[in-house]
Amino acid sequence: MKIESVQLSDIKSYDDSGTEIELTEGVNAVVGQNGAGKSTVQEAIGFALFDHLSVSSQDSFVRNGESSGWVRVTFVSNKDGKRYTVERYAGRSRHRIIDAETNEKLDFSAKAGRIRWLKEHLGVPKTTDLDTVWKSSVGVPQNEFIDDFERTQAQREDVFDPLLDLDVYDEVSSTGKSRPDLLAVKKSLKEEKNELEQEVERLRGEVEDIDEKEEKQNELDSTVESLNEEISEKEDRLEELEEREEKLEELEDEISELQSSIDGLEDRIGDKRQVVETAKEEFEDAKEAKEQVDELREQYAEYQEKSEELEGLKEREDERDEIQAELSSVQQDISGKTKAVENLEKAVEKAGDAKERMKELEDAKERQGELEEKLDDIKDAEEDVEKLRVELRDKRKDLQERKDEYEELDEEIEEIEELKPMAEQLDSLQEDEQELRDDISAKDARIQDLEESIEALEEAENPVCPTCGQELTGGERAEEIEDRRGEVQSLKQEKGGLEEELSDLLDDIDEAEEANEQVARLGDLRERLSGKKEAVDESEEEVSELKKQIRDLKEEVEQKEEVEAELEELGDPRSEYQQKKGVYQNNKEAEDDLAEAKSELSDFKESEQKYEEELKEFKGLDGEIESVEDRLEDLQEDRDKFLEKKESAEKFDNRKESLETARGELHDLKQDKNGKEDELEDLREKFDEEEHEEVIGEANSLREEIPGLKATRSEKKARLEDLTEELEELREKAEKLEDREGEAERLEADISFVQFLRDTVEDAGGQMAEVLIQEISDRADSLFRQLRGRPSEELEWRKDYQVVVTENGEDKEFEKLSGGEKMGAALAIRLAILNVLSDVDVVFLDEPTTNLDGEKRGNLVDQIQNLPSFEQLTVVSHDDTFESLTENAITLQKQDGATR
């Protein structure tokens, strides 16, 4: 596979601009200062492709202040070579896989389906966890290169056995009950050989008649070819007949269509005759209506004239009514304005009285305001005193709680101090545990060896002593078996005692580990104790300040009774002042309004006289209107009859024209019908019914004959295909016969080899594990020398996964190495594992030069450039030395708080 690009939005130091980083084949270098977001690129790929997240939660992976972010990784599949983009959100459950070529989303109903797809296309076995592959080999997190090598032996086995696939060989290398029974293997091989010999005999009988079947195949092939030629000839003749049949049928269809057209014309001629009759009746109706309209035209004209006269009179009536309405309105205004003048005269008097009283109340009103303001201040002080008292109670409570917390924490620290002796025993207890487990494993191995030797003595036809190799008599064999069974029983008892001792020891280790955890908290607890003391001091200062504030406010509150007494003596001059002020405000403009109201009343009376004079001009109007309406009523019947006949009379010319048009169209239809009847007669003379029937008969005969020939051909072809398939199977069986004969010979050799293994190999599985670890160790030793630049140093990775470095004859285990030596050894072994075992050809190295000096960093750079078997290797480092690794050096830096 190959990763082409990774895009990040709102992830850690990356903002929502969607920063995209492109990777190439070979070596890539992602460089930049600490905190620039380099490791985030590696974490994003692990999150999207390998379901791994190094932080505690997805929220911690999202940029500060944002609710979610996303990662898009585009890669080329190991399986089909196509490009895919994996899009995954942090802070949301969205996780999509998209075909990068078609931009179509792949359909997965659940996360398990996406994980299966990713394993298949990344090249990870179905049973292997994606997260384990990432964090243990492909993308080891920063500062964790050496952690796995500093663990106990059991913990190292838990890490590296699955990684190296050595757990697959447990059934072979184990000395427990899971070790295979070589006798059963030998028996199984013999049974397999017998089955092979039976299969060889069967195959020889099945391939005997292969020559006869090949001759039959040639005959059938010839027959099928003859049938192909005959069918082709008949299909050509059928094609000619179908073309002639089609032409005759077209002619027959044309005759049928022409007959249908003639029939249609006859129907249209009948319809058109009906149209002529209808047009004739409508013409007579229009003629009669025209005569009646001419007789009533004079009465209709008078009616129109009287209607216009009535309309003019109605307009004068509306004008008169408008003047009458204006007169009524002015009369109502005169009445209202007269009352308004009277009210304004009263208001002028009220305003004068109110203004005089306001002058009398001015001084008393101001003194009332001063006293009320002072009383409000006193009430505020009372409320403040009460609030401060409540706050004082809360502060006293907080002070006591802080004192209690201080004392509790102090007591907890004293209790943990007493646990130090127990915590200091932890390392010694763990060493005792390992020794007990080794003793138990040794006894298990011895018990297994004894039980296998007992089984071999019981099954052997000519038993020999497992110790000296001498043949044994029947009694000696029974005695030897009994001795070994006694030793087994004794060993099991001893093992039981060791297991009880281990159980007690594990209880002590649990107590020591818990004590160690508590002791580790002392530094933090002491810091917290100091903080508690500062909190107590702060609370005491707050309580003292609140007491002082309460004393100051009480002095102000004591003046309350004196102020209230003076207010009671004053009464409420402000309210009376406001009441008089309202009266004055409401009436102070009355004098100006009174003059204006009198002027308006005079104008209204003048308008009243004007409208009364104008109404005199409309005298006698109602009589004129009544006279015109009576004449219109006399003319109404003649006018209605005129309008009723007018529409029909106006259609006289059109209906006359329609009658003439219909008669012409009827004549044209008759002419068209006669022409088509002549054309039909000509077509009937061209069509030969007898020829048509002969063509149909011959074509139908061929249509029936051809399928029969095809069926015969299909049957022959099927037989030919079956025979061909059968011959292919027989040829495969002949080849299989040769293979089985060879397998039988190889099985005989395997049986001999198993016997050899049974006699000479005690623990083949362990040797296989040692071979694999030794190969990795040799490769790691070579890398370690190059990284360190010291040919005299040797690195060994032992079968218990312990790392040992030898220099000048002195062995140093991993925990005794310096920081630089640990980093070099861990890096060498991880690179060796990937180089020897991995089929995932992408790897990330995050800050691999930690604790290396300049010369060793240079050696590491050179070695990384020459690493084989990796299609793509990406180094993440703040060390600018790696910029020389490749032309694709990606430099990251922070600008305005975001990675660019």
From TrEMBL:
The keyword Cytoplasm appears for this protein: no
Biased composition (Polar residues): 326-335
One Pfam family in the UniProt entry: AAA_23
Keyword Iron tagged: no
Alphabetical list of InterPro entries matching this protein: P-loop_NTPase, Rad50/SbcC_AAA, Zn_hook_RAD50
Keyword list, A-Z: ATP-binding, Coiled coil, DNA damage, DNA repair, Hydrolase, Metal-binding, Nucleotide-binding, Zinc
A GO molecular-function annotation: ATP hydrolysis activity
GO BP: any one term: double-strand break repair
Similarity annotation: Belongs to the Sph1/Sph2 family.
Name the record gives this protein: ATPase involved in DNA repair
Species annotation: Haloquadratum walsbyi J07HQW1
Biological classification of the source: Archaea, Methanobacteriati, Methanobacteriota, Stenosarchaea group, Halobacteria
